[in-house]
Each structure stands twice: as C-alpha cells, then as structure tokens.
Write a structure and sequence with these properties.
mainly alpha, 4 helices
Amino acid sequence: MSAQPEQAPAPPAPAAQLLAQLRADRRADAWVPAFERDWGKALEDSRHSYSLTPLHDVVRTWQLRVAAAPAVDAYMDSRRDESCFVDLDDILGTRR
C-alpha cells in the first residue's frame, strides 16, 4: 500500500487561478500542458527540497508569460519586416 495519493493534489489558490486563466486563453492547447508539466516538476522538486520556492517560481514565471502575451500578440500583428538584418561581419569586418 502506498502512502502517495493516486491523484495529484489540487494546486493552491494562486496556481489554481492561473490555471483557470490559462484554460480560458486561446493558447490553452499549448499552455495548459506546459504549465501542468512545469507545476509537476516543481512539485517534485519542492518535495525533495522541502521548499515552496520551485512552486512560487512556476506561478511567477507563468504570470509573467500571461502578462506579456498581449505585447507579443501586438508585435506579431504589426507584421514588421525583419528580413533586412545586416550581418555583423559586414559592419565590423573580418574578425581574427
């Protein structure tokens, strides 16, 4: 008989709120599995280290991603032409 529960415990309130926000986002198909993977790894890390820091780091990182998403969308929608980059060697010359 194992002392481990068969199902993973529900995430605490901030993580659960974040997960609900991710599920409601148009990127849910990609973001939810990635968050759950990160959360699972952080949960394992925190069990071994007896620290909640890995869990806080996952929530903080994903909050920043969600907050940055509108700026990324605006940039992608601007259709900026980035095809005219200049090679650094053309500017600096041949390096030895």
